[in-house]
Amino acid sequence: MIKYISKILILFFLLTNNTIAEENLMILKLKHGDVKIELFSDVAPKHVERIKKLANDGKYDNVVFHRVIDGFMAQTGDVEFGNSSSTNYDLLKVGTGGSDLPYLPSEFSDLPHLRGTLSMARSQDPNSANSQFFICFKEAPFLDRQYTVFGKVIEGMDNVDKIKKGNKDQNGSVENPDKIISFKSL
Description:
There is one protein chain. The relative contact order is 0.24. This protein has one domain: Beta Barrel (Cyclophilin). It contains three helices and eight strands, in the order αββαβββββαβ. It is an alpha+beta fold. It has an eight-stranded antiparallel β-sheet with strand order 3-4-6-5-7-2-1-8. The chain is 21% helix and 21% strand.
């Protein structure tokens, strides 16, 4: 009887664990292919909740990668000015906007900014993250414990590498930028 109960508990744990894990998986569709992302709800719960809400509401669809620095990162997520199919789209303002939701308090952690890390963009105020985020092309330890890491690319980083790069002399600003086709939970 004890073996039977133990097997049931193990099966329950495995099934529950799998469900929790799937809740934190998202697909970012880019023109070069899909990118599978794992979100860290245990490390940055408020940021993960925000990303999931905006993504599942379609707010990131058609939003451009406005700042892309080769060897560093690709930044996107300005849902106010960066949606290329919106009447508010303004390439000169992209990067200055956010969503209509309030700023998020920082959720800094000891997770490092490695290749494939997703982290929230913000102003000088550590508690000013809103909708913009970036994906690291390579390790960026100077960002550690200063920006909220909320996820990582687990498949498709080669598609992130193909995002159109910006002008290094203009802080990575991109002419005719690539965009997010869609961003949704699995």
